[in-house]
Amino acid sequence: MTAVATTTDCRNDCAVQSDAADLSTIGPLTSVVGAAELVPLTSGDQIRYANFDYAASAPALTAVADAVAASVSQYASVHRGAGHLSQVTTRRYEQCRDTVRRFVRGRTDDTVVFTRNTTDAINLAAHCTPGDVVVLDIEHHANLLPWVSRDNGSARIVSACDTLEDTLAALDAELAAAPAALLAVTAASNVTGEVLPISRLASIAHRHGARILVDAAQLVAHRPVSIVSHGIDYLVFSGHKLYAPFGSGVLIGRSDWLDAADPYLAGGGASAQVSLVDGPDENCASTAWHSGAARHEAGSPNVLGAIAIAAACEAIVDLGFELIGLHEAELRARLDAGLAGVADVTPLRIFSDDLDRVGIAGFSVDGHTPRAVAEYLSDHHGIGVRDGKFCAHPLLARLGHTDGAVRASFGLGTDSADVDRLVTALTELTRIAPGKAHP
Ligand SMILES: Cc1ncc(COP(=O)(O)O)c(C=O)c1O
Predict the structure, then answer these.
(1) 118 lines ligand 1 (CB under 6 A)
(2) How much is the pTM?
(3) Which end of the chain has fewer surrounding CB within 10 Å, N or C?
(4) Atom 7 (ligand 1): residue with closest C-alpha?
(5) Out of 5-9, 16-20, 293-297, which region has the weakest mean confidence (pLDDT)?
(6) Residue boundaries of the structural domains of the chain
């Protein structure tokens, strides 16, 4: 099996990279499942997969897969079984809520609901939010569409400005102009990786009597989040972007709106008492619903998904955000410097301010469609990136990329050889005439 080496002539061409970044090798920070997976190239060779699509879905941490495997052997029905393993599984599932709460520094009385993913969590929040919601136009569709398509309040969409400061002022003005129940905002852009200032956004919302929901899908794996210190009312995220791809997500936040709303799904688990005689509705049915997480978790929950999320939280705490931040900063500096050395590559940014960024680089390559770039990187270099509009069509339109762009995103399993391979491949691509990259 031959691993295809990066071509030395391209390496030597990355002058900006050599000038700007320390080229010492950086290993992966921890072990992820599938790190050694080989993929085929059009040449007939095979190469280790270079995964630059962490922002879409991150590989499982080995620690997470191990925790899930250990739990599978003791898995049994959750919540209503009297058997020993049912009790073990139920205890484990409920403990996952506490692990999540500690991970994001939640209040003791916050409700932790396990959902399918961030999209599901925001739809649940939209179902429970009584009144208008203010959102920016830079959001992932998951934090736009649930708000625009509901009947318990309207969505007021604020256009982001060129600078973050002006954007914060625009949000402030919108919330001052008319009361809103909620400001729903992303913590980090899934297109550019730019990190928004959560505490300042929370202060703006609270100053005008609104609550804040933070879409932390792109942040929780990369930066510490504190519900208490940042002043967050509701926080949502997905397990599969937190190295726990087992089908669960989280909504954590204040319980009053959650308890006041009808159950998100009707069914067993959410209902405390059901009677089909003498009830108030037209079928004589009456139902008493649980409060707390159970109210919105009807049906059998995804226990292994919750266990995976809790294991990821623990593994990340063990690694420490300081080390995670350093690892990402070093790789990002190397990638930024490398991309800056490829003449035809233009990075995407929402704000002209120099903001902190997680490991996401959105960019375009002059003369090549995003799909052609992604296919070239995969077919000739074994690199997986994302191309398209990243479920953020309004943002891509704002940025002038109605045909989409390319996104390279990385994380704990990424090393400097991956970054170098990506930069080398893009350098090679830009030497090939448009349309010829994919013979
Ligand atoms: C910022 C942001 N919010 C929400 C979502 C939706 O996440 P999920 O597909 O896990 O529901 C994504 C997914 O890419 C995202 O990047």
Answers:
(1) yes
(2) 0.93
(3) N
(4) 118
(5) 5-9
(6) 8-60+320-431, 62-318
